[in-house]
Amino acid sequence: MVPYIAVIVTDAQRRILWVNEDFTVITGYSMSEVFGKKPSILQGPGSEPEAIRRIRKGLEEQMPIKDTITNYRKNGEEYPCKLIIHPIFDTDHKLTNFIAFEVDGNEVKDEAQLPIMQLNEKYSTSSLKGVEELKLYFRLKSLIDSDKIYLDPSLTLKSVADQLSTNTKYLSQVVNHHAGTHFQNFINAYRIEDVKEKLGKEEFRHLTLYGIALQCGFKNKSTFYKVFKEICGITPRDYLKKMKKLQTEARSN
Questions:
Q1: pTM check: above 0.85
Q2: Which CATH class is domain 148-253?
Q3: How far apart are CA 30 and CA 17, in angstroms?
């Protein structure tokens, strides 16, 4: 499953200008609630002073920062926040913005699997192209999550690009850059997650594995089996056997 990645864009004074929907999912705060405030709104009594000092020092020195800190959701719940912050400069090398990417450490154990969470990513462009690219990526994620467009077996790069009012080349680059894969793999990952979810539900027990795959956007049996093994490391049948065994053991305990 593609993890939630909060994105925060601030001005040079670190006041929040924009956050994506994943930020709201992770923190509980809406865009209107944090606009104009500083990201420190997420800190609380358990936020580590050393981490705060390291982050502040990096911001003051206008250097990329990668760290982990205890943050707090709107409801007061704490969570380990893994973050990376990039300064953004204009063509005269004047600081204009900061852009931060954050994941919930409870959900993402190894952020090394996410290209966007690496310090070698570049967002220091005068036109904030990096931010616009990110907005397109998260618009894509929002479209997938809300409309479940991956369920359409005839879905194409062009049809999605049209829905997002962009072109196929740019959309392909955005997916490759921020998801670390190509468009078809990106969509298939959502389909596989849907298959796995349905395999665990009683209401789908009467269907064959391929029957479930058809309901999740696959239209070719061999493609489904191939993609499932590539993503999960085992065949769909072996996955089902493993899941049933775990369920049986859980019931016996």
A1: no
A2: mainly alpha
A3: 12
